[in-house]
Amino acid sequence: MLPDIVAVLLRAAVTTIEITLGGLAVALVLGLLIALLRRSHVRIVAVLGGIYVEVFRCVPVLVQLFIIYFGLGELGLRLAPLTAAILGFGLNGAAYLAEIYRSGIEAVHKGQFEAAAAIGMTRGQAMWWIVLPQAVRIALPPIGNYGVGLLKDSSIAVAVAAPEITFAATNLINETYLSTQIYLVMALIYISMSLPLSYAVRSLEARSSRGRAR
Amino acid sequence: MQSQQTQANETARPIVQIVKLQKDFGPVRVLDGIDLSVAKGEKVTLIGPSGSGKTTLLRCINYLEVPTSGHVYVAGQLLGEQLEGGAYRRLSDREISRMRAQIGMVFQTFNLFPHLTVQQNICIGPTKVLRQPPAEAKALALQLLEKVGLADKLLAYPDQLSGGQRQRVAIARALAMRPQLMLFDEATSSLDPELVGEVLAVMRQLAREGMTMIIVTHEMGFAEEVSDRVIFMDKGAIVETGPPHELFQHPRHPRTRDFLSAVLQKKPYR
Fold first, then answer.
1. Has residue A212 been placed in a domain?
2. Nearest in space to B161 (alpha carbons), one of B204, B125, B191
């Protein structure tokens, strides 16, 4: 019995990882875009970016998943649960990462912008070649921590029937009534995925302290 | 106050011309109507108490500060704005950047790019802004590093260098853009005293080679040695100006005298 339980949950763990990595990838790219839009000198662009961040941070991610999966479904756009989960976590994560990127950019010493300007770089060149490389290094630990948190938050996707661990475990419990064992195995699997990731983030933190302006 | 110089023919055209420059930071007037002209090859030093506006004036010359009113001309070109049909239009970031590429600046806090090696720090301007081929930029970088005495630090990172070494790299980085003039904003003020000399030596060498230099400094000995003209500023205005020997030995204005006696008491001749 137990080996079968573990096998089912391990297969579901793959989906958990897919949701985490997929959501993180979308959030990383979209979050950076939004962080840069918020710094635009075109007022309307900056305001729209700000609205995005506020809206997606104020609505619980569970509700966002419902809107994407059920809400869009009613309007005719039926997404697979996995797709909806990745999209939902991606859009939500982008709002949080935009704030993390913003802190990173603001943590870069103002003299760096000025030195880049002094050698004739445009604002865009200064951002791309000088500021962002430094900002991302600063932002890596909080981004990494966000990723570790996302791994566990992926369990929320059970609400849209994405075949990740929590969903698989819930179904197994309904079939076998072996709730204690199943919850334990589930927790162990989450721990075994989270721990290496946590460790990786910590070593990233240590390595990324090179390249800080003084 | 310095009287406004009229622009003569092309060859005598000043490399920097500042006309009625005013700069406010909110309610505070930091520059109160500055007129200044700097000729090609001239070394001008700005001295004065903190808050006198000398750093702000320097930063207006490469448009790091935007004047509240008045105009700055570099090599005959109006900086940061364009006269169109009787009104002044603010230039785009790209246009301003193009003009900034001709002006070199050295900062008090060096501002080297910490994620790049010394070589990359020097090459990034020529390659990304001037679009020079990397090989050419690298050759220039090595040449400039030899000039400032740091050829062996080509692949070092800024955090591996001393303050004096970082500032010398910063000077090389500015020179890599082949600027028409160099601005020095208290280039030695952040350095430990024993490291100041090596940076002043580089600046002295640059001066000898004919570079136009506008220097904000507290190093009075250096100012006297290198400058063609010293300008004393206080409360946002030019109080007195003249050749260094004259200004330092025989200051005319009481405020100049007060400032010099306070400063020269503490600082030994270097």
1. no
2. B191
In a domain, A124, yes or no: yes
Q: What is the pLDDT of residues A17-36, one digit of tens each?
A: 999 999 999 999 999 999 99
**pLDDT classification of B268: cutoffs 50, 70, 90:** low
Q: H or E stretch including B110?
A: none
Average pLDDT, chain A: 91
CB contacts of B128 in chain A (<8 Å) are 121, 125, 129
- Half-sphere exposure of B229 toward its Cβ, with a 13 Å CA cutoff? 19
Q: Which domain holds residue A157?
A: 15-162
Number of structural domains (chain A) is 1
For residues B207 and B200, what is the distance between their CA atoms, to the nearest angstrom? 10
Contacts with B65 from chain A: Cβ below 8 Å: none
User: If you search the block for the tokens 């003209």, which residue do you land on?
Assistant: B229
* Contact between B173 and A214 using a beta-carbon 8 Å cutoff: no
A208 touches chain B (CB under 8 A): no
Q: Is A119 on the interface with B (CB under 8 A)?
A: yes
Placement of tokens 């704005």 in the chain:
B81
Q: Is residue A122 less than 8 Å (CB to CB) from chain B?
A: yes
Domain assignment present for residue A93? The answer is yes
Q: Is residue A186 part of a domain?
A: no
